């Protein structure tokens, strides 16, 4: 069994996940674009892993978009996306909030009909290790 650790940007909320992820999706739906402010969300999913809040559980807020199954959890202080258990029996973990490396790669793109127009050919852009001068 694997242990993963993660936190929010300000460090208030810290957590541990014990178990394995069954899938890793990049979701391009309009809801995930709004949630992330980017082209897609990168989320790991598990029906068996256990989430334990190590600190800051009281700083975690959740939001479910009315009339949908779309839900997210985030730190009320810094706004960082955090693990969500709003769907019964399903743990959804934003990949970027993990401090532990994940060996699993994304397995699929979801809702590509909603893909951002500018999300094409990005692998061809110049790459920098830090902010260019």
TrEMBL record:
Pfam families: GFA. GO terms for molecular function: carbon-sulfur lyase activity; metal ion binding. Keywords: Lyase, Metal-binding, Zinc. Transmembrane segments: none annotated. It comes from the Bacteria. PROSITE patterns: CENP_V_GFA. The keyword Translocase does not apply. SUPFAM superfamilies: Mss4-like. Residues 4-119 form the CENP-V/GFA domain. Belongs to the Gfa family. This is CENP-V/GFA domain-containing protein.
